[in-house]
Design a protein that fits this description.
Layout (H helix, E strand, L loop, with lengths): L47 E2 L13 H12 L7 H8 L1 H14 L7 H13 L4 H15 L6 H16 L16 E6 L6 H15 L4 E4 L6 H14 L2 E4 L6 H14 L4 E5 L7 H16 L8 E7 L5 H12 L4 E5 L9 H9 L3 E5 L7 E3 L2 H9 L4
Parallel strand pairs: 2-5, 2-6, 3-4, 3-5, 6-7, 7-8
Antiparallel strand pairs: 1-4, 8-9
Length: 386
């Protein structure tokens, strides 16, 4: 009997590209949230609480914009809804992977050369060398030397990817303490989409899950972050605590917690700065925020979410490592998958770090941040259409 052995390539030591200098923030990635705001934040009172209201006001829209948004928000059926948006959002990543698979099947048999090419395809899709090698190795155990078909490869890859993603596909659970709010600290580099993510999560928690929600504008170094969070608070009918630009972020967090506790708010979401250009200062600031919160309750914060921009590809790995040094990251939210050909990075992150992935964003509308589902994501990534 002939025996076939596939020699794995040693790609674990492949150099990871250095994180580029960060551009000015692009947190405001929702075109519905770009009204002209001319006032200076310093003109605002030192602390302002926006009272919760039954019907949330929204920034002024044009009739055309209102009609377009209603069409987008109404598109939530299974057909043409979230699954469709997920598939469309991952189309750039899918195209890169499926083209490579199509070229691969011309070889007919799965030999060592074909396995190496398949591994290269997965690395090109930003799964990372280690994860790509693991999937291909498992794939080769039962198929080496056999004829291969495109659909068979896609199904096998989806199975392998799903096996990696299933353990980390966990929804964000809110467990309100008996005394005080459930506190979520939201971290991430400037431009990852923290402010928009906070707004969309607040919408889901407030309108869909019926929690009372307060936001705290803890990124006090950027007036734009404060202003955009204020717009989101108005839009989704949530309370907001903000202070002057340049104020102490820990003070904002402390006062927000006291206010939320006094008013029996269910969930407090705290925005934070993300200036990795000066890692030392950022680390000190985040750790100070946590120390100050823990003067109120040692269990705070209950959740620390890291928001990652999928378009950064392999740089997402270094961002996770950096923020894990600063805070106890409890879960990930991956945004901007609709603008990236690097959707495979989420698979590599799940494989390497094992952190829960709570949600993914595949569009700009308020409904386009959804709980992460492993099988749907794997199928969409490899181009399997149900």
């Amino acid at each position: 009997m002939s025996m076939f052995f596939w020699k794995k390539k040693k790609k674990n030591d492949a150099p990871r590209e250095e994180e580029p200098a960060l551009e000015p923030s692009t947190d405001n990635d929702d075109p519905a949230l770009t009204p002209e705001i001319e006032h200076e934040v310093n003109d605002e009172p030192d602390v302002e609480i926006l009272e919760e209201i039954d019907e949330a006001p929204v920034p002024a829209h044009t009739p055309i914009a209102d009609e377009k948004e209603q069409e987008e928000l109404a598109d939530d059926s299974e057909e043409g809804g979230w699954l469709s948006r997920l598939t469309s959002g991952l189309s750039k990543s899918t195209k890169k992977m499926t083209q490579g698979i199509t070229d691969l099947v011309t070889k007919k048999k799965l030999d060592e050369e074909a396995l190496e090419e398949l591994e290269d395809i997965l690395i090109a899709a930003d799964l990372g060398p280690q994860t790509a090698m693991k999937i291909v190795e498992d794939f080769s155990k039962t198929r080496f030397g056999k004829d291969i078909a495109e659909d068979e490869i896609k199904e096998a890859l989806s199975e392998g990817i799903t096996a990696i993603l299933d353990p980390v596909a966990k929804p964000l659970e809110i467990k309100k303490p008996a005394n005080g709010p459930f506190v979520i600290l939201v971290c991430g580099v400037n431009g990852a989409g923290k402010t928009t993510t906070i707004g969309k999560l607040a919408y889901q928690l407030h309108y869909q899950q019926k929690y009372s929600v307060m936001m705290a504008a803890g990124d006090t170094f950027r007036a734009a972050a404060v202003e955009q969070l204020e717009i989101w608070a108005q839009r989704v009918g949530c309370k907001l605590l903000k202070k002057d630009v340049g104020a102490d972020a820990a003070s904002v967090a402390y006062e927000a917690y006291e206010q939320a506790k006094a008013e029996n708010v269910d969930v407090l979401m705290i925005d934070t700065a993300g200036r990795l250009q000066n890692k030392k200062n950022l680390m000190e600031e985040l750790q100070k925020v946590i120390r100050v919160l823990q003067k109120q309750d040692e269990a705070l914060p209950h959740s620390c979410l890291l928001v990652l921009d999928a378009t950064t590809g392999q740089n997402a790995f270094s961002q996770v490592e950096t923020f894990k040094e600063m805070v106890d990251v409890s879960g990930l939210i991956v945004t901007k998958l609709d603008g990236s050909a690097k959707g495979g990075v989420l698979v590599g992150l799940a494989d390497q770090f094992g952190l829960p992935v709570h949600a993914v964003g595949v569009g700009e509308t308020i409904e386009d941040l959804q709980p992460f589902q492993a099988r749907e994501y794997a199928n969409a990534l490899v181009g399997i259409i149900d």
